[in-house]
Amino acid sequence: MAQLKPAQIEEFYRRLQERDPEPKGELEHDNIYQLLVSVVLSAQATDAGVNKATRPLFAKVTTPQQMLALGEAGLTHYIKTIGLYRGKAKNVIGLSKILIDQYDGTVPHDREALEALPGVGRKTANVVLNIAFGEPTIAVDTHVFRVGNRTGLAPGKTPLEVELKLLKRTPQQYLRHAHHWLILHGRYVCRARSPSCPTCVVADICGFKGKTIAV
């Protein structure tokens, strides 16, 4: 797969921005703590499935203290429709305790501190740093990995390789929202199966050789 040239990358993002000037994540939350919990729960699950579970949960739980009071069994009741819910419940209770013990119940604005929390890896930390704190991070999930490779925007064999390439190749003015543009593009247009190439705003730039055609 040939990599896109700088001018093509600039135009790629310009069009995504034109289509959606202020992209937002689809995980529902009212504060940074709820965002962190939602992202932890979203591993190997859909945002829609997580939102369905967290709406009633977040109506009752807005802080780590309230989560601890709910307890692991109580939390499990709310999230049992989400994949890997037992392990996730344990992680959410564990990270809530650490936030209370070490950070006065607040979510730290620090990558190393975030990644030290149970259930929080690089991708989760990137999402929180980007959405909650406005950091120019790019979380590489399956959608971003696919778009990076398929289009020639940032080909790589691992999520970290794609992430580092995207950070290096994305023009500065687009870094703040690149994460969301690429996720949403991969989720709704550049899908794994039957990508919607005929309606894609960057189809003529994209290096994908297996483009679908209008029927």
Number of domains: 2
What composes the largest sheet? Answer: none
Beta-strand proportion: under 5%
Query: In CATH, what is the class of the largest domain?
Result: Mainly Alpha
- How would you classify the helix and strand content by structural class? mainly alpha
Number of helices: 10
**CATH topology group of the largest domain:** Endonuclease III, domain 1
Overall geometry:
elongated
Describe this structure in words.
The chain has 215 residues and is mainly α. The protein has 2 domains: 6-24 and 137-199, Endonuclease Iii, domain 2; 32-133, Orthogonal Bundle (Endonuclease III, domain 1), CATH 1.10.340.30. It is built from 10 helices and no strands. Helix 8 (142-151) crosses helix 9. The two termini are 26 Å apart. The model has no long low-confidence stretch (mean pLDDT 96).
In short:
With 215 residues, this protein is mostly helical. It has 10 helices and no strands. The model has no long low-confidence stretch (mean pLDDT 96).
Annotation keywords:
single chain; 215 residues; Endonuclease Iii, domain 2; 2 domains; 58% helix; elongated
Give me the secondary-structure topology.
Layout: H1 6-19, H2 32-41, H3 47-60, H4 64-79, H5 85-103, H6 111-115, H7 122-133, H8 142-151, H9 159-169, H10 175-188
Helix pairs in contact: 2-7, 3-4, 4-5, 8-9, 8-10
